Fold:
Amino acid sequence: MARQPRYLLNRDGRYFARLVIPKELRPFLNNKTELREPLGPDRRTAIARLHTAVASLQGQIAVAERKSQLAKGAPVEPGRYPLPLDQLALRNYNERLEFDTELRNTSPLYARIGVDDRMVELLREGMAGRLDNNALDAIIGKRIERYRRLGNTTVEFGTPEWREVARVLCISEYEAYGRAMERDEGDFTGKPEHPLLTNAQPALEEEVAPVLIRELFNRYVAELKANGKGTEAEKRWRPIIEDLVSFARTSDARKLTKKTMLEWKDAKLKTLAPRTVKDVYLTAVNAVFNWAVSNDLLETNPASTVKLRVAPKVLTRPKGFTRDEATEILKFALAYKPKQSENPQTQEKPQTSAAKRWAPLICAFTGARISEVTQLRKEDIRLEGDIAVMRITPDAGKVKTRQYRDVPLHDQIVAKGFLEFVAGSADGPLFYPTMKGKRVADPAQTVSGRISNWLQKAGVIPEGVSPNHGWRHALKTVGREVEIDGRILDAIAGHAARTAGDDYGDVTIIAKKKAIDRLPPFAI
Structure:
């Protein structure tokens, strides 16, 4: 005896598609306990019609669930619900026309290309069911997979249900091609002719389900954090997202247009520098919206074509310290002695004093980022043979490349007594005290900020140079002067490889030590 298909009900020789309504949704469906759709008296015919009927019933339940969520004030996720075939076809048709409009607004070249006659013929064949599964997959498979990812359909490749969805989308694509041809002739009044589209009701999701800008940002940051990133982006970009929501007077990303984004950009330029608007504000929204598009949460990024020309920064001097400037800073740092205070609360911590003394010298000979130095631990300094080595590692804190690197210490750092300082230090961080419990702020960042402020207040940092980043520029400049190989310089300073070939082979400690030994000592 043949097994009864799921959702198929036989009542006195007549067949029905049947779905039970969840209790919490019954108030939104006239308090019914189930939904039925007649399929006729013939079992084979009923089974053939079952998938389409079930999809229609699931669409009704999905509408009820959306209404339930909206009644609770909960956001409705776009694409979460399966759609009946007519709504799926209509959605695809509308998306294709929206994309056509966007392309026409982007470049005049698009309208000159014309329609692919071969594709039109294949769509006719697909509509008629004359294509095999592979041929259907070639012309429409990506659209089906998109709607599978969105949750609008659950069909599996090669099944009769999959072929039905493929044929429906062929109809949708064919109709959209028809509108494109009319638009090429300047006629934008055309309407679909196929009954599947003319009789379809828009899905409630398309009418009322917003794509919340804040929720997109939260999900984007969550994905970054899952990869060990995102903390700085969240802190810096959240006010920007809030500013956009406030300006646009909507929290729905679907309602943002290029015009809105241009107006927002112009408003920001009245109070902010062009580079800030470009590198911070536009970068933030583009990152979030591009992520949303790639994850099928938005159709398009409304800011993708918003451009802002920024004049190059005016430079009146090198970005790094000159030799004389570096020497003056290092003399000042190595001679530093903290002010004494009888009040323990106002007395500078010895680790902070040590950071002020040693961090500039280490940066001068390694080009390390200042926070990479201030997060060093006692265990990160070792002797490898007779070479003193500093290990910069994500185990100690933030490393931009997220990769450890070993950097030999210049003989002048050793001669000044750095290894003795390390040997006399307690286990753990060298430049900030160990604390129990979770810290609110990154202690290495805090110490590096104190070093920057201290040097600037002392007047030893020339105008136009970063008190911490200037060392990286200076190292690269001197390294080129003494003809250190560029790849070795990058490996010392922690810069990413510039070519795929640079990733082959290792830059060893011995190679780095030979390079660092070329760096001339400072007259300190």
Notes: The chain is about 50% helix and 5% strand. The radius of gyration is 33 Å. The chain has four domains: 8-72, 86-208, 213-294, 323-517. Strands lie at 8-11, 14-20, 34-40, 381-384, 387-392, 405-408.
